[in-house]
Design brief:
By secondary structure, the protein is α/β, with parallel strands linked by helices. The chain has 16 helices and 25 strands. The strands form eight sheets. Strands 10, 11, 12, 13, 15, 17, 18 and 21 form an eight-stranded mixed β-sheet that branches. It is globular.
């Protein structure tokens, strides 16, 4: 072989070893200008580390969605036959082709990633800004959040090589500009500060006192919730904890001594942690939100094991990681909890559609395993998760995801009335879900032209149901007082589901799992709320009316009727 031929062969071998060239890039997501609320400061430092999350496209999400509805729809022959972890992961896992293509792309940059979900559809890796700019044909810059002064590294556009574009569903951080001072941080309800006890904080609350002060006894009276202790240790409720909100055991003891004198005041909860989470017990570190969530699960779902999952701050800036990490953490377990309640969130526009869709997939997978996923709907009325300045109605996140149950707020007892702050409306990301299409259609017909043009009339409607959410009595830091918000409502409804699941498991049946098809198939098992509205954005908002509405959903719990609808 000649020297020239040898050189050519060596060159070809070198090119083959180098793998794909990845020269052709396709834009994935972009902004035409800096998002509202942020100011561009300048290029991000090349050496700044980005902790990347890369979501791979699932091999068969359509199959998972079908399986979810099959096991969650009462009329289905597969109702209650929830999937195993391996079965769910088979739907979520990327194809071998996708894995190979993405691996080749990472290899071309000298990188390796770590799987951060049991299905392998999420990867984690850390790279400097200079490398991220190269990988995504991007220009990461520093942006200042005007309200807080905090800065984040983001890009107004990112692209992917043609060879991997179809295999990667989303990248973070990239074009998602959530509030760095409040992403995942604004508690959906903004509770009142606990104050000195008032005269109506009696442990034997009567319907008249419940009109102004909600306690476990009020809920037992209003909704027929039993005090009989649950018996099944395999049935549990998970309470999500974020932003260094800690659940205080001494406050729980005080709460039980005052409001649940019929059970032991030493009744407590288990703890799991991730992302550097903890749960210190000093009174000064007691979290109003965490205490609320724990006290209205332990104190209402009598005898149902409650687990507080404290998610720490060892993740990237932005709320994707907290929400994502907890569901991936729990989904990795062989036995998932039967209920998860979360009282945190944001506005739908704060997260890119690609990221929101991929996170919503994780909730679908969790539901297919047999977990009822409940989220507080938010406290901004038609302004979204939190109050904001707007000219058209905003949607809350993740309430728009059709694979979870969104819980709104009511107050009063005769009748119950939708709370003005109760977030509700229609998603701009997801279309109306099949299980609610007739209910939403009936509402839109009844509403007529009111609010026309201010919302997406073809979107997924929320909340799905509601529960009491005003002047709910708690203990925090050794003091008692009332709090308001849909974050009261979610743990209350979660407790009802936890108690029904206990009866189901005791009878040898499956837990309820994903609730929505069952809820919309049995609206008469709920107390329809027909008064109240959620104004905002300079308009009247929506008005509660007979049937489903985007203020109170289908209504509030009626335990006896729900038991019957569950076949008990």
């Amino acid at each position: 072989m000649s020297a020239a031929a040898s050189l050519l062969l060596a060159s070809l071998l070198s090119l083959a070893a180098a793998g794909p060239a990845f020269h052709t890039f396709i834009v994935q997501e972009s902004h035409s200008s800096t998002p509202q609320g942020f100011t561009k400061v300048g290029p991000a430092d090349d050496a700044t580390t980005l902790n990347l999350r890369i979501a791979l496209a699932s091999s068969n999400f359509a199959g998972l969605e079908k399986a979810l509805y099959d096991v969650s729809t009462p009329s289905s022959s597969s109702y209650g036959n929830h999937l195993s972890k391996d079965e769910v992961n088979a739907f979520l896992a990327p194809t071998a082709e996708a894995t190979a293509a993405v691996q080749a792309w990472l290899d071309s940059h000298g990188l390796s990633a770590t799987k951060s979900s049991s299905a392998g559809d999420w990867l984690s890796l850390s790279v400097p800004v200079s490398k991220a700019n190269q990988m995504f044909a991007a220009q990461y810059e520093t942006f200042e959040h005007n309200a807080s002064g905090k800065t984040v590294a983001r890009t107004l556009s990112y692209s992917l090589p043609a060879e991997v574009a179809d295999h990667i569903a989303a990248v973070h951080p990239a074009t998602t500009f959530n509030n760095p001072a409040g992403s995942l941080k604004p508690v959906l309800s903004i509770p009142k500060a606990p104050s000195s006890p008032t005269a109506n904080l009696s442990s034997d609350a009567t319907p008249s006192s419940c009109a102004t002060s909600i306690t476990p006894a009020c809920l037992q009276s209003l909704y027929g919730i039993p005090t009989t202790p649950a018996t099944e240790s395999s049935n549990s409720i998970v309470v999500s904890g974020f932003i260094e909100q800690f659940a205080n055991k001494a406050d729980l003891t005080s709460f039980l001594k005052k409001f649940r004198t019929d059970i032991s005041s030493s009744t407590t909860f288990a703890l799991q942690t991730l992302d550097g989470g903890s749960n210190p017990q000093s009174a000064s570190q007691a979290g109003v939100e965490a205490n609320l969530d724990i006290q209205y699960t332990v104190g209402v779902a009598t005898g149902v094991p409650v687990v507080f999952v404290s998610v720490g701050e060892d993740f990237n800036d932005g709320d994707l990681e907290g929400f994502l990490d907890i569901v991936n953490f729990l989904s990795a377990e062989d036995q998932v909890p039967q209920v998860m309640t979360t009282s945190y969130g944001e506005n739908e526009t704060d997260m890119s559609k690609a990221l929101a869709f991929k996170l919503c997939e994780a909730y679908a997978a969790f539901g297919a395993r047999g977990t009822s996923v409940l989220f507080a709907s938010g406290d901004g009325g038609v302004e979204g998760g939190q109050a904001q300045t707007c000219s058209v109605y905003q949607a809350a996140f993740p309430s728009g995801c059709p694979f979870l149950t969104s819980v709104g707020s009511v107050h009063g007892i005769s009748p119950e009335t939708g709370s003005t702050f109760s977030s509700g409306g229609f998603s701009n990301y997801w279309g109306v879900a099949d299980y609610q299409s007739s209910a939403v259609s009936a509402f839109l017909t009844a509403q007529g032209s009111t609010n026309k043009g201010l919302f997406n009339a073809s979107g997924r409607g929320y909340p799905d149901i509601s529960a009491q959410g005003e002047n709910v009595q708690i203990f925090s830091g050794g003091r008692s007082g009332g709090v308001d918000g849909t974050s009261c409502s979610s743990p209350i409804f979660a407790s009802v589901i936890g108690l029904i699941n206990d009866r189901l498991v005791a009878a040898g049946n499956s837990p309820l799992g994903f609730l929505n098809p069952w809820l919309y198939a049995n609206p008469s098992m709920l107390n329809d709320v027909t008064t109240g509205s959620n104004p905002g954005c300079g308009a009247k908002g929506f008005t509660a009316r007979a049937g489903w509405d985007p203020v109170t959903g289908l209504g509030t719990p009626n335990f006896a009727k729900m038991l019957t609808a569950a076949g008990l």
